[in-house]
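Q: Sequence in, structure out?
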Amino acid sequence: GKITQDEFVEEFYPKLPKDFMQKKSEESNKADMEESKDMKAEKNMEKIPSEIVEQIKEYGQEHLLQFVEEYSEDELQVFVEQLKQLDFKTIQELYENLVKNPVSLEEGEKDIQPITAEMIHKKDAFSSERSQELKKRGAEVITQGQVATLILSGGQGTRLGFDHAKGLFKIGLQSDLSIFEVLTKRFLRVQEYSKELLEKDSTAGCYLYIMTSVSNNGEIVDYYEKNDKIGVSEDCLHFFSQPMLPAISEEGKIFFSGKNQITMAPNGNGGVFSYLLKHPKFFEELEEKNVKYLNVVGVDNILCKMMDPLLVGLAEELDSKCLVKTIPKNSPREKVGVFGLVKGKVELLEYSELGNLSTKTDEKGELLFQDANIVNMLIEVASLKRIALEEGEKLTKLYHKAHKAIPHLNEKGEAIKPPKPNGYKFELFFNSFMPLMTEGTAFLQAKREEEFAPVKNQSPNNDSPQTARDLISKLHSGWVSKAGATIVGEVGQEPNNLFEIHPLISYEGENLNELSGNEISLPFYLPLKKQVKK
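A: Exactly. Output:
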């Protein structure tokens, strides 16, 4: 007759435990699962391009494949797209040069010298006639569409308590304009101003490029789309994302942030060179458009004068390949980067690198190292192309490392939040290219109060929205006073003494004669198209 499985085991295998068959079944299922995992891993591995797998093995990053058998089809696709973005050779070079075998410079070994007087041109020293002559010369180039602007805007507004792209931040102006709106409208205004300087009726459109990051590209593009491109014609406005680099361990292994997510970080505003190296068509487009100069500016200086006709005109006169705008330091100990010569080559020197040199003065009592960086430079496109395409590999050695505590997954897939630094991120700064310029670098020292109002943090007295509003109020009220108006009250003492001119009305104080003879009370805002009557 029929017997049950338990009866069968008890009769024929009396010495075996009663749960023997259950355990055998579990072991069988486990074996099947292992076999299924192996099959899934093999299947998923087949979908990863063989050349990527070869690079992973060549550069000792095999751990990147440890979770492959767990990926769904969608998760695998996301993972493969990330792998395609990795430059394994660069990652290895950065680890070797900056972490494993860093070059240490003993004090004094760098041979730091101030930039020479012949390289510096002070705006204060120009007569009104010479300034006007240079502006008209620059306006000729601008009205022919030969100058393009690149805004470096990959950063977030985290230090401002703003979890979005910094350019979207509003500093509290009466116009309610964001940083992007102020800068973009100034970009449009300077083209009209150039026409006015030359009494021209028309001009070729200049091109505006905006470098975003992977994290903020979508919202920046959407912002411009929803705001009618802030007045820039569609064919003149272009966006691209700065490349990312993975964070690595102290042993040079790339970190995971999730089982199919590699820990990536923006590679600094100098990442534009990585982009240009991989996208040579950028230069083809500029050459087709007959663009001679690229004006590179930062997003966090709301007083930035991009495409300044004076700057462009001076570059033409000097035949400069790279003309950099600077401002004088406001004190010897101001913590800003300044320009100097290192072994005869121009470099941007961090405050920490100068040491006691930061207080050294010449026979006139002026600081030897006083030309502070405001991220505003005019670069000849041909020179930029040579550096990006022919000497791009040299830039790898100019990266900076940051030793940080980096959250990651361990080999078991467990989330780790380290209490102390455990890995590295790498950044390249745009100014790092300067030692590769072979000739023609010069500096235009501008006035701080006219061209520098950084918006970096919430501290009310230091590079904040409040200090930026104050600087704008003082500059714009100065324009109006010069035009012949009388201002009642003390400008800039918030919240009731703000003063603002819409950026499409005036670039540097022009077009305000209609205010002459008026007595103006505070706060004051002159919007676009508003007519002020006496």
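The longest strand covers residues 371-380.
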